[in-house]
Amino acid sequence: MQQLDEDERLALHVYYLQGEDVDEVKRLLNVSRSGFYRLLARGRGKIEKYIKQKEN
Length: 56
Hints:
Elements: H1 6-17, H2 22-29, H3 33-55
Helix pairs in contact: 1-2, 1-3
């Protein structure tokens, strides 16, 4: 998770690992709903890329 920006890491952690809802996470990060979903998508994309690199 070191490859992630702080906001991406926090969004992924709080949403997926702590189970908070979208409104709570976007309030915590002070972003819009679409901004929150962009952070999740970017973070997941970076994790996917990292995993694929490790597989090769």
